[in-house]
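Students often ask why we bother encoding 3D structure as a string. The short answer is that it lets us treat folding as translation between two languages. Here is a chain of 102 residues written in the first language.
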Amino acid sequence: MKTAQELKDEYDENLKKIQSKCEHKDTTWCIEEWAPAHGTGWDVRSCKNCWKVLNRKTTCINCSKEIMISEEEYKSLDYNHPYIHHCCSNKCYKEYMDAYLI
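And here it is in the second language, the structure alphabet:
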């Protein structure tokens, strides 16, 4: 009998195969939540067929400019990157911090 971890690993491997072959023709935007009714501030575009998250968008909290990045770019961000704080640049992040978080 397989363990739960073995089943999960098998599922993850099969899903990656499907996602790598999918053409992502039918996509949708939705609000990302870390728990029900608790949004992250990001909208995500994902494929309806394979569920792969393709890219993300949010609005700069300082200047209201739209920020759109790929999922790969998002995964590579560290906590100090302005996008994590919903700012389009270091300048906007500094302006926001100076104005609202004295």
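Translate back mentally: The helical segments are 4-21, 71-75, 90-100. Keep this in mind for the problem set.
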